[in-house]
TrEMBL record:
It comes from the Bacteria. Gene3D superfamilies: EutN/Ccml. The lineage of its organism: Bacteria, Pseudomonadati, Verrucomicrobiota, Verrucomicrobiia, Verrucomicrobiales. Keywords: Bacterial microcompartment. InterPro entries: EutN_CcmL (IPR004992), EutN_CcmL_sf (IPR036677). It is found in: Bacterial microcompartment. It comes from Oceaniferula marina. This is Ethanolamine utilization protein EutN.
Amino acid sequence: MHTQEDSLTGARWLLVNPVDTAQLNSCISRQPGLTSQPSLVVYDNLGAGEGDIIGFVEGAEATAPFEQPTPIDAISLAIFDTLHYEAPTH
């Protein structure tokens, strides 16, 4: 027996491997392997694919795009075509 949540129709679930700032530039030039960060499942209605770099939020902010309470913990917000990151210098 299962129940489908209507508000989640038409999107996909992505298995995402987050990177930290130390790994960010290397993942821009090549697809990184698994990182030490724990993987998570992200709701995606933007159409991200394997190897894409996405921005996502977790927690209560992930439910903000929905009109009704929706059972998700993380949602994709952006697919980055290009990205440049410079670490701050102290």
